Amino acid sequence: MLLQIFAEYFAPNKDFYSVPGSDKFNAYFNAVNTARDEMFRQQQLFAEATKWSSQDLAELVNNPKPGITNMMICSLIFLMGNYAVIKDAVYCVDFSERIPNCVALYLLLIAQKQPADKRTQIIDAGDGTDKKPLTDALEGLHVCDPSWNYKVW
After folding, report:
1. Closest by alpha carbon to 93, among 147, 138, 54, 32?
2. CA-to-CA distance for 36 and 19, rounded, in angstroms?
3. How far is CA 145 from the centre of its chain?
């Protein structure tokens, strides 16, 4: 399942990471690395979102399989974002202060499945939520797709 998620959502977006040192490359890998850290810090959310235990994650990280482990980690990040976002008339986001980069990567990747002129997302980060972490994460990734439009409220 994890490799299928990677193949469907990450692999088609090679232009995000194909030019090392580019703005897109830096923004993308900054978000992935920060999201990976969020995943490790939020073990309860990780378990709920992925159905993996912290021991499973530790095993994956401590015994990496070349070419596979990073794809699986990206897919686990995607699952964290998926867990935190509910699409209705707007995208309702939970945990945006705790896993903003997981959420931002998820929103960017699902936007890529839409035609460029339909990549608009209205995002409800929740009442009483500090929207800055999510907004910062989204703004950091915007360079990957300038046609991606979002509004956080």
Report:
1. 138
2. 21
3. 14
